[in-house]
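ok here's Ankyrin 2,3/unc44:
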Amino acid sequence: MELSKADSHHSLGEHVHLSSCTPEKFNWILDRDACKNWIGPACRPLWLYGMAKSDVAASMDVLERKARATFPDAAVIKYSFDAYDDRCRSTYGMLASLSHQLLTLQPGLFEHVRSLYHAMSQEVEFKIEHLWALLRSLLSCPPKHHGVIFCFINMIDECDPSSNKFLKDLLLLANSETSAGGFRLAVTSHKAPDSDVEFAAHAINVIQERHEDPVEKKKEIESVIARETRLLFEARPELEKLDGIINEKLSAVDDVFNISLIAKLLQARLPHWGDAELETQLSALPRTTFEIYRHFWGSIPGDYQPWATDMLSWMVHAFRPLKVTELALAMALQDDTLLILELQRLPQGHIKSEIENVFGNLIQI
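and the structure:
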């Protein structure tokens, strides 16, 4: 199908993903009326916002788990905007991606849009107006024939304002009777939605409404430190003699995600130095997520950094985790001189070993 070409950056597979924060701490969202209205018969659109992408992403993961548990046969489609990636800044890519995902999950929907799609196929390139008409028609199909559709749009305010045509129309469609009650939309953003958005009053501020019991948080951190140091010492027994320094370093971080990140950095990246050198390196390790990643990135040899950048870009922007073979194909497709037959003959184990050599255990395969 030609639609897959328009969705070339969001139609890959599964099994390779970045480590992320634990979503369970955001289960409180499920008790909010806005969430109950979203998952329940009212199916009102849900909006989450917060400056920390990791918190917002974890919150959306909680919602997706709830959606799949409540409606096991539902079709779940997703799209993420990214202001720093030209491929993920416009609604053209969003409309193509969501339509392609939905038709892949629910092939029977194609019968409802067959004539529209054939008319679109006469054009050299799909127009955004046609893509919107296609997605709108798919989302408006009665749910009694094809089930419920959950749509997750991440970081909606990272869409380029000059390329956001039909974005507001999608929000309005989810908040109207036109979707026939089978279309449920959840969106995230850095900032609160504009007041003129009809369901803005029910938006949930992830940071503001997140409540943590200091005692429970301390127990959680101690538990994570115990688990991570145990795994670290199993993999690197020579570090166990520095357990006091390592525990002190991890205890000062005060964030479970960053604790796990530092532990993985120690496990995969810390060279086999003497005690003095190890202590120096331990004391120099940063505590914030951004600085930890920057420290990790600085340890990747310069010749590998462009490759590593492309690798992470494909992984982060694919709408679902990638299979190793799909990731290898995606990376190879960036070289215009390769033919499809040559791509299919690429060794499958090569890309896996490259990922392990460059990223260590920061990326799970």
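+1. The two ends are 29 Å apart (CA to CA).
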